[in-house]
Amino acid sequence: MGIVAGLDSSSESTRIVVCDADTGTVLRQGYAPHPTSVPEGDPQAWLMSLGDAATGGLLEGVQAIGVSAQQHGLLTLDAGGVLVRPALLGNDKRVQAAAADLADALGGRAAWAEAVGTVPQAAQAVAKLRWLARNEPESAARVAAVLQPHDWLVWQLLGRPLRRTTDRGDASGTGFWSAATGSWRPDLVELALGRQAALPDVLAPAEPAGHTPEGLLISAGTGETMAAAFGLGVGLGDAVVSLGASGSVFAVHHSALADSTGTITSFADATGMHLPVVHTLNAVRVLRGTAELLGTDLHGLSELAMMSSPGSYGMVLLPYLEGERTPHLPHTAGTLTGLRRESMKREHLARAAFEGMLCGLTDALDVLRGRGVEVRRVFLLGAAAELPAVQAIAPSLFGVQVVVPQPADYAALGAARQAAWALGVQQGVLSPQQPPLWPSAASQVFEPGADEMPVGQAVRQQYAAVREQTHPGAFDAV
User: Fold this and answer.
1) CB of 463 within 8 A of CB of 316?
2) What secondary structure letter does DSSP report for 199?
3) Cis omega before residue 327 (within 30°)?
4) How confident is the model at residue 283 (pLDDT cuts 50, 70, 90)?
5) How would residue 35 be classed by pLDDT, with cut points 50, 70 and 90?
6) Which CATH superfamily includes the segment(s) 3-227?
């Protein structure tokens, strides 16, 4: 088919991969940093970073480009297409009160879940619109159109045409688009902002956004989570567990899930399927805190944990160090139980930290399983996924095959794969229903041994008993 490129404009940098459209082979790569991440951003800096990343003839011969970008940013435009103010980004904690305010405005959490598949959250565009209306009414009064970062970058690459576009994946994170019905809810924009605003057209997965003045095809683009899932090649039966300071668990599912508790956020993906997501507030921060307590680093903590045995000699760490979102315990703290003289050793505490973190993520995985989401294998992402203790403990706790992909720019690869799809459809060699079959990510695979499964179940039962004793009924509403 030719040569395609995928660019990922994250909160920290722009990464570009240039790939063979038929095979997915990476031919060239580019990188440039963004300014320090803050709650507000200058979109022009994203464009400058894109230009820096593409120097040296990186895009020579490229026929199509896909764009992935940080999710949950809000860009507001006036009637002339000029930015009203700097972009509000996903990490803006000022918006928390606005999100809580909105949750009651429509008639409660269940009403929001039914309407758009999610309860208002501070990261979402809908909450940022409410914050803008409450705190900057003069700016709010000028808003004529709203976009997200990937929408804005695509619009700029196309030369700022009259038509603005997005995709179903990024739209599903706004809080005013329904993944179940595939339609905008402009009434929710008006509820939040106090007035109507133009919304971009939502493109189908293989539908192009347009062509640049030079004739370069630009695909629909999408948000980072959706692009990374597409780059990894996950499908039905796959779940992805991301190990950052906090954690997230998402899976590919055939339909949207409405959840009145707000535990599940119902995203759409970049292929026509759905990505229900469950977040935890505590993941690698649990390991880092324990490592500091024991005077070591993550690798040292892993070595210590491997010296202990499953169940950590009866020691259980509930990893709710920053409160917790799954289960909903925002004001709680972590607890360490099972202390006996014989268990008070560094290696047992290290093991308890790994088991506690992974049991917390298994709880999140079980929320999806409880709603009928099939999980046959789990992809583990993040630097902590490379730790031997994680790789040894996770399979028996998750109860399925665990895949640890080789580190790569998966969001950029997903954007490039989308560009190849749109290009192939335009050339008549691909179907709009079938993306290009690029090779799966190079990975390590860890199977739960038959003798390990009962051990993993015993560790989970020990953890669940302590969790229920400490926080009875925590999962009753989920």
Assistant:
1) yes
2) -
3) yes
4) very high
5) confident
6) ATPase, nucleotide binding domain (3.30.420.40)
Phi, psi values for residue 39, rounded to 5°? -65, -20
Query: Quick one: tokens of 190?
Result: 């008006």
Residue indicated by tokens 């535990």: 263
Tokens of 298: 């993550």
What contacts 57, CB < 8 A, 6 or more positions away? Answer: none
> SS3 helix, strand, coil % of the chain, rounded to 5?
35, 20, 40
Amino acid at residue number 235: G
Alpha-carbon distance 6 to 124, whole Å? 25
Distance CA(276)–CA(365), nearest Å, equals 11
Residue owning tokens 């000699």: 313
Task: Tell me the C-alpha distance between 347 and 343, whole Å.
Answer: 9
Domain edges within the chain: 3-227
For the chain, what is the mean pLDDT? 94
Please report which helix (H) or strand (E) contains residue 409, including its range.
none
Cα atoms found within 13 Å of the Cα of residue 253, Cβ hemisphere only: 27
> Long-range contacts made by residues 134-142, C-beta under 8 angstroms, separation at least 24?
134/98, 134/101, 135/94, 136/85, 139/76, 139/84, 139/85, 140/193, 140/194, 140/195, 141/195, 142/76, 142/78, 142/84
**Both tokens assigned to 108:** 């409660």
Q: Which residues pair with 31 in a beta bridge?
A: 15
As given in the structure block, the two tokens for residue 332 are 């709680």
Average of per-residue pLDDT across 395-403: 97
Contact at 8 Å (CB) between 377 and 365?
no
What value does the mean pLDDT take over residues 142-152?
97
C-alpha to C-alpha distance for 270 and 205, rounded to whole angstroms? 6
